[in-house]
Design brief:
There is one protein chain. The chain has about 700 residues and is of the alpha+beta class. It has five domains: about 150 residues; about 50 residues, no CATH class; about 90 residues, no CATH class; about 200 residues, Hypothetical protein af1432; about 120 residues, Isoleucyl-tRNA Synthetase, Domain 1. It is about 50% helix and about 15% strand. The strands form five sheets. Strands 1, 2, 3, 7, 8, 9 and 10 form a seven-stranded mixed β-sheet that branches. Strands 13-15-16-14 form a four-stranded antiparallel β-sheet, sandwiched between helices.
């Protein structure tokens, strides 16, 4: 068995960006793992460690040397490798040079086609100690850091200034210099509780040594510790945490030794909307808000300190003191904003540029008003409610509260609309206009909210395409991918049976860009289909489908995404039937036959009088009988029932192809049989092109 040793790399830095820390740690681990694989170094478990001041990866049982590589190359034929005197030719000399040996070191190998020169060699594996510094250096370079820093007079670049580097293979330090620092075995504990260097004996003792230095190095373990401490502190205060996973991650990335701090604020601030209080405590202060058992917010919070202070009361008072100005500002903004009705702010939208080629927010609002009203009308809702909500939707962007808390846009509009006496449906729709904000987020619950949210997205997508700003690669400044997926979710999961083609055409026509590209609407619809493909193939919604199943429905190109969804659900069920594979193959065969027949394939129905073979008469009778059953089912969108009926065609179709020559020499028989196949395929195509299954 090859010799093995544990490996540890740790880079110590100034405080790393907290929101990026989990991604940096994951990328570092992935790059080290990839480097080990490329270097052919076998290993055991990889562990990731990440705190505000360090990134580290521990690898168990790394093989200390690469395996040797046996190589074999075949050269020129012996007849071409030597002349009549037995001297090597240029071909033999060139092959030997390529292999790095003399001609005499080459062997000969006979085969049925003759004898050849062959090189067989062994490349000795390199020691892991030589390879690991390069693997780590490449991993540092591959970290997803948009902008790197330089510090002091060093030319090294990293996400933050680097202060120490640990590289241990077993008990040995791997001598190297990376990021301007020499590798060693000294790590650092907590900045204040354990500032002296900590000497590591081996990788196995890393986490334990740091724990003694008041650092919980494992991110997941520290995250769980933060959660437990915050929940315990909340329970002691008589409440429960307003839990937010993103906040928990960020707090975990800010501390190395979590210590809970319970604090209070003046109860008068509870008059603010809950969302304002939560945004102030969570987003601005990184505090955990608390709710009482009756579900109401409490004038309490839990903070997580990175210091086990000798004077906890001083830490508590400090946390309480800094939150008061934030809450007071929010209180002031809320009071002042309500003095001006949203409707009076609408004129101000003309002074805010949405996009220089697409006009102002007032221009966008006018387009969304028209489209939202049309959508509401088509969906059977109240157009006036949707239009009023669209008129006021962007007005809260001009308020002081949204200026301070951009994440509350829409939410504050809902509160201010209620205060202004707008109808409840209008206020609710304003609050729902940005839903869903991310994958899996809630959808608008009201008809007006769905119409507004859909219209807003369609206008943004149409405008972005109209000015040539379609997303590409990782570039998506207008959030078009998210907007398109959100629109599809509203249509499908919100059960809105609307013609997306027509809505996109309307949205494109309203854009203030000329000349209009006649292919623009089709390009947008193609983009929607790309998003829809990901929605189903990735299992992001309630239905997961395969590539062939999606293509089967896409070939039919339903105008309504909801109709697409219903057809796809039926095709997914059909594909599980025993008859599906045979009928898919038959449909593919039929499609090929009809395509090859070209103009010879008739549009007319088959003539029963020209059916001479028993198998074709049996198929005709079965097709005609099923047509009477299936077409009403398709009209009622009972696609699953329709395909289940059509599955009964398996036996007569198989018999037809076994017994009947479609392309008969008699042109009348041939045309009639082509008409029968076209009739059969049409029944399936009324639902989907099942010939695509298995693609």
């Amino acid at each position: 068995m090859a010799e093995q040793a544990d490996f540890l790399v740790e880079v110590g830095t100034e405080e790393l960006p907290p929101k990026a820390l989990p991604a940096l740690a994951a990328a570092f681990r992935a790059s080290v793992a990839s480097g080990l694989a490329q270097a052919r170094l076998a290993h055991g478990e990889l562990r990731t460690f990440a705190t505000p001041r360090r990134l580290a990866v521990g690898v168990a049982a790394v093989t200390l040397r690469q395996p040797d590589i046996e190589s074999e190359l075949r050269g020129p034929p012996v007849l071409a490798a030597f002349d009549d005197a037995g001297k090597p030719t240029r071909a033999a000399l060139a092959f030997a040079a390529k292999c790095g040996v003399e001609v005499q070191a080459l062997t000969r190998e006979a085969s049925a086609k003759g004898e050849w020169l062959v090189y067989r060699g062994r490349e000795a594996g390199r020691p892991a100690a030589e390879l690991l510094p390069g693997i780590v250096e490449a991993a540092f370079a591959a970290l997803p850091v948009p902008r790197r820093m330089r510090w002091g007079d060093s030319s090294a670049e990293f996400v933050r200034p680097v202060h120490w580097l640990v590289m241990l293979l077993g008990e040995d330090v791997l001598p190297c210099r990376l990021l301007g620092v020499d590798a060693g075995r000294s790590t650092r504990g907590h900045r204040f509780h354990a500032p002296e260097p900590i000497e590591l004996v081996s990788p196995a003792g890393y986490a334990q040594a740091l724990d003694a230095g008041r650092v919980i190095a494992d991110f997941a373990g520290r995250r769980e510790r933060v959660r437990e401490l915050a929940q315990k502190a909340a329970a002691q205060a008589g409440g429960a945490l307003v839990f937010d996973a993103a906040l928990l991650d960020e707090v975990t990335a800010l501390v190395e030794w979590p210590v809970p701090v319970s604090g209070r604020f003046d109860a008068r601030f509870l008059d603010l909307p809950d969302e304002v209080l939560i945004a102030t405590l969570q987003d601005h202060q990184r505090y955990f808000p608390l709710r009482s058992p009756d579900g109401k917010l409490m004038p309490r919070f839990v903070a997580i300190s990175n210091l086990d202070s000798l004077d906890p009361d001083a830490v508590r008072r400090g946390n309480e003191r800094v939150v008061v100005p934030r809450l007071a500002d929010a209180e002031f903004f809320y009071s002042r904003d309500r003095q001006t009705p949203l409707a009076e702010r609408a004129a101000g939208l003309a002074g805010v540029v949405f996009q220089k080629r697409l006009g102002t927010l007032a221009d966008k609002t006018a387009r969304v008003v028209a489209l939202a009203g049309r959508i509401a009308q088509l969906a059977g809702g109240d157009a006036a409610t949707a239009e009023r909500a669209a008129t006021l939707a962007k007005c809260d962007l001009l308020t002081a509260m949204v200026g301070e808390f951009p994440e509350l846009q829409g939410t504050m509009g809902r509160y201010y609309a209620r205060h202004d006496g707008e109808p409840p449906e209008v206020a609710q729709a304003i609050g729902e206009q940005y839903l869903p904000r991310w994958s899996g987020d809630a959808l608008p619950a009201t008809a007006a909210g769905r119409a507004l949210a859909l219209a807003d997205r369609l206008d943004t997508i149409a405008g972005t395409f109209a000015i040539g700003q379609r997303p590409s690669g990782t570039r998506d400044p207008f959030g078009i991918r998210r907007a398109a997926l959100g629109a599809l979710r509203i249509l499908i999961e919100g059960r809105l049976d609307l013609d997306l083609n027509a809505l996109v055409t309307d949205a494109v026509a309203a854009q203030p860009v000329s000349p209009k590209d006649p292919a623009l609407a089709e390009a947008i619809l193609e983009y929607f289909m790309e998003r829809l493909r990901g929605y189903y193939l990735d299992g992001a919604g309630e239905l997961t489908a395969g590539h062939g199943e999606f293509e089967a429905v896409l070939a039919r190109r339903p105008a309504s995404p909801l109709d697409f969804h219903q057809r796809l659900a039926a095709v997914v069920e059909f594909s599980r039937l025993d008859a599906a594979e045979s009928l898919a193959a038959a449909n593919k065969r039929i499609a090929n036959i009809l395509r090859q027949a070209g103009t010879e394939a008739p549009d007319a129905a088959p003539d029963p009088a020209r059916l001479v073979e028993p198998a074709e008469r049996a198929l005709f009778e079965r097709v005609e009988g099923l047509a009477e059953e299936v077409r009403p089912l398709v009209a009622a969108r009972r696609y699953r029932d329709a395909l289940e009926r059509l599955a009964a065609l398996r036996a007569p179709v198989d018999r037809f192809f076994d017994d009947v020559l479609v392309m008969d020499d008699d042109p009348q028989l041939r045309r009639n049989r082509l008409a029968l196949l076209a009739r059969l395929r049409g029944l399936f195509m009324d639902v989907a092109d099942v010939s695509r299954l298995g693609a």
